[in-house]
Amino acid sequence: VLGLEAVLANGEVYSALTPLKKDNRGFDLKQLFIGSEGTLGLVTAATLRLLPALAERRVIWAGVESIQAARRLLVHCETAVGGALEGFEVVPDGSLQAVFDYAPDMRHPLEASHPWYALIEVVADAAEADSLGERVEAMLGEAFEAGLLDDAVIAANETQAEAFWGLRETVPMAERTKGPAKQHDISVPVESMPDFVTEASGTLEAAFPGCEAVAFGHLGDGNVHFHIMAPAGVDGPAWEAGDGKKITAMVHDLVTQWGGSISAEHGIGQLKVDELARLADPAALTLLRAVKAALDPQGLLNPGKLVP
Amino acid sequence: VLGLEAVLANGEVYSALTPLKKDNRGFDLKQLFIGSEGTLGLVTAATLRLLPALAERRVIWAGVESIQAARRLLVHCETAVGGALEGFEVVPDGSLQAVFDYAPDMRHPLEASHPWYALIEVVADAAEADSLGERVEAMLGEAFEAGLLDDAVIAANETQAEAFWGLRETVPMAERTKGPAKQHDISVPVESMPDFVTEASGTLEAAFPGCEAVAFGHLGDGNVHFHIMAPAGVDGPAWEAGDGKKITAMVHDLVTQWGGSISAEHGIGQLKVDELARLADPAALTLLRAVKAALDPQGLLNPGKLVP
Fold first, then answer.
1. What does the alpha-carbon distance between residue B51 and residue A116 come to, in Å, rounded to a whole number?
2. Confidence of residue A72 (pLDDT cuts 50, 70, 90)
3. Which tens digits make up the pLDDT trace of A154-191?
4. What is the spatial distance between Cα A170 and Cα B303, in angstroms, rounded to a whole number?
5. Nearest CA to B201 among B254, B278, B261?
6. Which residues of B touch A10 (CB under 8 A)?
7. What is the DSSP string of A238-298?
C-alpha cells in the first residue's frame, strides 16, 4: 500500500494517495488505517504497488517424515532460490486421505504415502524464466542428497500444477465433512511453528480425549490453520458451546505463550474481541484504546469491533 | 523492522519484539514509533530482519544528456535486472567539475564530459554471482542500442568501484566549498523527479537572479538533494536569513504542489516543524496532533519536535 485516502470521524478527509518512496514527515499515518477494520476511519481510495506478471512457475509435491523435516526443507529452498520461493504449504497425510475420501477422482502425486507433504512453488519473471527448471532441479537434487526429503515430483505442466494446488485447496472442505471441529487462524514465529504444532497437538489431545488436532497451511509464513476435531459421535452444537469454547481458549493461551498471534489472517472483528482483551499485551491495549478514543471519541466507526 | 519494544509516556512498556510474518490483530502498532522521533514513546529494543550478504556487485558510471534521459535509463535498468538494481544516483556535470576543483587527484571515469551522469550499482547474492557480469553487459548493451546513454564504463575492480562512489560522495563537500547555499532534503513521486528538477530550478533561478540550482542524489528513490547556491560575493549569514529563507519556503511550496515531501530522509525535528504546520494536509495534522495528545497528554516526550 503506497498511499491512502480516508474519511475521519470528524468528517475531515485524510488524503495521501501520491506515492513517495521516501518520506520522513513523522510516523507513517496511513498505517493507522491498514488493518484497523474501519474503526479509525473509512478508507475511500488506495494507491497500490503493482508487480510484473510472473512468466513461469514450477510446482512440487514432496513427501517428508515430519513437520520438522518440512521446516528443514523450507530453509533449504529459501537458501537455494531466495525470493523466488512463492509458496511453501504443508499437509499431513491424514488430511490428504480426507481429500481422497471427499473427492475420489483426485490422484496421489507420489507412489507411496508419507507422514507429511510439502507443496512448493518457485516462480520466475521473464528475465529468469529460461533457467527456472534448472534451478528447481538443482534445489531438489541437493535436498535429496542432504536427506531433506523422501520423495518428490515436479508438476510436468500447468494442468498437473493446478492439480497439486487443488489437493491443498480441497483440504478445508474435506476436513469439514469429517465432523464438528474448532478452527483457528494462528501464527507463531516461522522457526517455532513445527514444534508448536507438535506440542500443542499433544497438549490438546491429552486434555480433550477423543479429539484430533490437524494443522495445515502456510508454513513459509509461520501460520497454519489449526483445527481440533470433535470426538466421533458428539452433538455438534452442544460440543462447540462446551468443550469447543474451552479448546479455543486453550489454543489461544498456547499461541500467546509461544509469542504468536490469535489472528494471523482474518482480523479480530467481534468474534475475537474478548480474547484480544484477555490475552493482548496490556500496553498494546493501552495504545489501541488511546488511538481509538483520540480519532473516534464518540465511537461512531464500526462500534464493537477490534477495540475491547 | 519486525518488532519493537517501547516505553510509553505513562510508564507502561509496549513489548512486541517477537517477529511474526503474519499478524492481523488490528493495525500495526509498532508503526506508531517508527519515524515518530521519540514523541510517542522511547524505543528501547528492536527486532530487525537481516539479509544475506551480497556476493558481488558491478558499478557503472554513465553519461547522459539530461536528467530526463537518466530517468529513461533508470526504467530500462529496473526492467532489465529488477531488484538487483541496488543504486541509481544522478550527478550534474557542474557538480562533477566542483569535485575535481575540490579534489584534483580524482579522475573523470569517461573520456568526455556529459550534461548529467548516472552512477549505477547492480548486485548479486552467491547464487547469482556468476552470471552478474553477463547480465550487466546485456543491460548496458541494450541501453546503448536504444540510445538511452551516450557513454558508460563498468568499474574493472573494487578499487575503481570505490572511486566511482567516491566521486558521488564528494559532491556535498565540493558544493559546500563553492559558497553559501540552502540545502533541501525533498522527494516527489519517482517518475516526476526529472521534470520537478527542471521546472523548480527554472522558477527559483528566475525569482532569485544570480542563484544557481543544483540537484544530485537518489533518483531511483525519487529524492534528491536540492541546493540553491547564493549569488557570488554575497554575505553568507545575511543572505541565509533573507533570501535564503524565502528560497526554502518556495522550494517547499513547489514540492508540496508536486505532491512531494519536505523531508525525504532526515525527519522534521524542530527545524521543519513550522513548515510542516504550514504545508501538511490539514487532516494529517489532525491525526498527528490527536495521536500525540492521546499517547503523551502531558507533552513529556521530546517536546517541541515533529508535532506542530
1. 30
2. very high
3. 999 999 999 999 999 999 999 999 999 999 999 999 99
4. 56
5. B254
6. 286
7. HHIIIIIHHHHHHHHHHHHHTT-BS-SSS--TTTSHHHHHHHS-HHHHHHHHHHHHHH-TT
pLDDT in tens, B32-73: 999 999 999 999 999 999 887 889 999 999 999 999 999 999
Q: If you measure CA to CA, which chain B residue comes closest to A282? A: B14
Structural contact between residues A55 and B298, judged by C-beta atoms closer than 8 angstroms: no
Among B residues 119-138, those touching chain A with beta carbons less than 8 Å apart = 125, 127
In tens, the pLDDT along A13-65 reads: 999 999 999 999 999 999 999 999 999 999 999 999 988 788 999 999 999 99
Q: State the pTM of this model.
A: 0.91
Q: Which three cell numbers stand for residue B200?
A: 523548480
Using the Cβ of B294 and the Cβ atoms of chain A, whether some distance falls under 8 Å is answered with yes
What are the backbone dihedrals phi and psi of residue B57, each rounded to the nearest 5 degrees, phi first? Answer: -145, 160
Chain A interface includes B24 (CB < 8 A)? yes
Partner A contacted by B223 (CB < 8 A):
yes
| CA–CA min distance B235, chain A (Å) | 32
Interface test with B, best of A287, A296, A305 (most B CBs within 10 A): A287
pLDDT digits (tens, 9 = 90+) for B116-126: 999 999 999 88
* Residue matched to cell numbers 529488477: B82
CA A303 – CA A38 distance, rounded (Å)? 9
Query: Which of A26, A265, A268 faces B22 most closely, judged by CB atoms?
Result: A265
